[in-house]
Amino acid sequence: MSEWFDRCRKYTLTDAKTGFEINFAGMNFTDADLEKLTPLFAKANAGIAAIEKGEIKNPDEQRKVTHFTDRITYCTSPLYEAVEKFAAEVRSGNITGSTGRPFTAVAVNGIGGSALGPQLLQFAVNGPYWNELSAEVRKNGLKIYFLDNTDSAEFADLCQVMDPETTLHLVVSKSGGTQETKNNMIAMERFYAARGLDFGRHAVAVTMKGSKLDKYAAEKKFLASFEMADSIGGRTSESAIVGHVPAALTGIDFKNFIAGFLRMDELTRNTDAFKNPAMMLSAMWYIAGAGKGDRNMVIVPYSDRLVLLSRYLQQLVMESLGKELDLDGKVCHQGLNVFGNKGGTDAHAFIQQLNDGRDDFFATFIELLADAQKIDLGDGKVMGDYLHGFCAGLTEALRSKKRQTISIKLPKLTVFELGMVIALYERAVAIYAEFININAFHQPGVQAYKLAATGELELKSKLDAAFQAMSGFKGDAAAVADKAGVPEQAAAVEGWLRRMAANGGVKAEFNGSVWIYTIN
Q1: pLDDT digits over 320-339, tens only?
Q2: Cβ(471)–Cβ(520) under 8 Å?
Q3: Which position among 35, 348, 402, 488 bears the catalytic label?
Q4: Any catalytic annotation for residue 67?
Q5: Which one of 266, 450, 456, 509 is the catalytic residue?
Q6: Fewest CB within a 10 Å sphere: which of 34, 276, 294, 425?
Q7: Catalytic residue among 165, 189, 238, 319
């Protein structure tokens, strides 16, 4: 047997029960490197145990972290039953909109984890053309759309295709104050009101009990309001209520999805680091990036249905691990960059750089062994043979250049296998956070951007007020800012003026060196 084959045998973890397999042999490490991590393995085991015992593991917000443990009992909970009952009543036509017509579609209004997880699940399980299938083929599962940004184009695109009378709106916001989600809800309410429709009779909330959204849902008589746990963050909420409601409305077997999570949770609770897929995965990240995230994480699933996985992992990994301060308050600037595509499309996209360019990454290939359909190409091979050949060939090409790789094999792609993959990365993130001593469960950088955005929006209000008395005023951005009483914010004022000019609020002319604005 070859030395490479021996290394693959030694550093591959296989779950015989499910067929899940992860191979670390393509990473640049030795047994001695792993032995050096023994103290970190012990620290991580203790940290994960503390999470599952219910200790405070988000100290900045004084919160427990319960996504690992809540899902153990979720499928036997009253909340699970309430969601399943509600979804069944909607799909059967017993719960209708304000005009009495049955619902045929759901629009999920949320941002970050409130949208990325449901989008990944829907695309992976139901595929990209779900909404084009007949109700009979969908077994009355609702069509599904997403509003996940405060972009008027996205809103307009949805309004072009949806029938407002038969569309259910799922508003997802933990605090109830998420601005992007709130904007879409307000706009949609006005859209419905303009057509004489009661938006509340078309709306469902997923939020914390007692939140602004929960109170608003009660006031407006939403069809339902389902409680979101304070101890589960958006990026780890796909196995909870956030993932469940849209899945149930489209007919996805959420219980089997959770079963996949629970199987991987079982495997990744193993305190023997060398038998724990998540512990080993975290060790690879740590060794490859010298404990500082010095290498990019490339995610390449050889499956069209998993094309959204890299986007999902961007949030899970980068929002969790990208931190300025460690748990001791010391500046650390930690994090892991994540990007990806789908194989073999990637071979015509960014593989050229991975193979010949900067050696600043490690690539994770995810392969499905069973074909969705056996398509005979007449040359003794089926289409899936080529996909496997491209995956194996790329892995070998990168190895020949001493580029680092991890390989994951799944027997097939169902909700169960997807649950396993998500659970693997959730656990690896929590373990890696223990390695580098950071809080993986808060997001101060996100809060900082929201505060900065609030300042920008307050400036817009000041300009609107000042412009009431500035009709006909003409000048460059500096002159406008000075006249409006905010001379120190001239650069930001220019940004607003350019936007206003594009939308008819002011006139703009370029004089060869600067823009000159005339206030309408």
Answers
A1: 999 999 999 999 999 999 99
A2: yes
A3: 348
A4: no
A5: 450
A6: 294
A7: 319
